[in-house]
Amino acid sequence: MTLTGPVLLHLLLLLLLPVSARYFGHIAENSPVGTPVSGALLPGGSHLNATLTGDYASDFRLVHHRDHRLGLVSAKALDREFIAMYELTVQLPRGAAAVQVEVSDRNDNIPRFIGGNRTVEVHALTPLGTELARFDAKDGDAESNGRVTFYASPESHLLHVAPQTGQVRLVRSLLGVRQATLRLCVRDGGSVALIGDPVFLHLNVHRSGSPRKPRAVREDVALSVSVPQQAARGDLLLTVPDQRFQQRWFQMLSEADSPVQIERDSGRVYLTRGLLEPAEVLVKIHNSRGKKPGSL
Question: Where is the secretion signal located (predicted)?
């Protein structure tokens, strides 16, 4: 093909234009070979003999587009856990251009518990709110994809699992219970959540020693709950301990715009709106048999 004067002059001018000092692009990890790096396009007139240098530069190759711009495509499947940011240089006759390539996270790691099943010996008169165990888990993904949430499946009426910390607390009396098992699960924060293999917490309940009178109910009990960012309206946050009242009902004493609501008979607390900052609510537990109510 013979280039006419104006076209040839245009190409010569492009070749003489300076190259910007830095470019930035991104590509999802584990993308197929040949996937373009988004955003990393050098201007028209980039030289055909340009070369790519830098640590692990062989993970990419240069491609020339019809509009004479120069881009990058992957030469292999990339792993963010190995390299999250590439620092590359495109060598051109008229100078060098620095190119940063970020490998964005793909939710491809399943969360896993650190440690296995546990067995705990617990007294039948253990106070409500006592932490019986704490579990931990890890996920190799980044940002929200690597954020783990703990939960019981099926739900337990005896035990409460803190979603963010993995703490397991007693929320109902163990009187009359000899053994109990909690199936604990963990999921990540991906748009399509990945769920890891469960672990089990086994409780052996005993009544060693001489019988004791039940402890007096405390007037004020404080519980803290961590609410995950992805929590939605209507999600169950916790079940308020029943304080060993045989017949009781629950009342919310907080303001009308409280971020939670409580079921009168069960004590289940549900989220009613999004949280932008910590919030404190007051719940009164009424003893239907006439004893003095407790408060939370």
Answer: 1-21
Sorting pLDDT into bands at 50, 70 and 90, what band is 29? confident
> Model-level pTM?
0.51
CA 198 from chain center: how many Å? Answer: 17
Asked if 237 contacts 164 with a C-beta cutoff of 8 angstroms, the reply is no
**208 C-beta neighbours (distance < 10 Å), count:** 7
Superfamily holding 107-213? Cadherins (2.60.40.60)
Domain spanning 5-104: CATH 1.10.3370.10: no
Give yes or no for a contact between 151 and 163, defined as CB atoms under 8 angstroms apart.
yes
Answer yes or no: is pLDDT of 236 > 90.
no
Residues 242-273 as b/e (b if ≥16 CB within 10 A, e otherwise) read: bbbbeebbbebeeeeebbbebeeeebbbebee
CATH class for domain 216-296? mainly beta
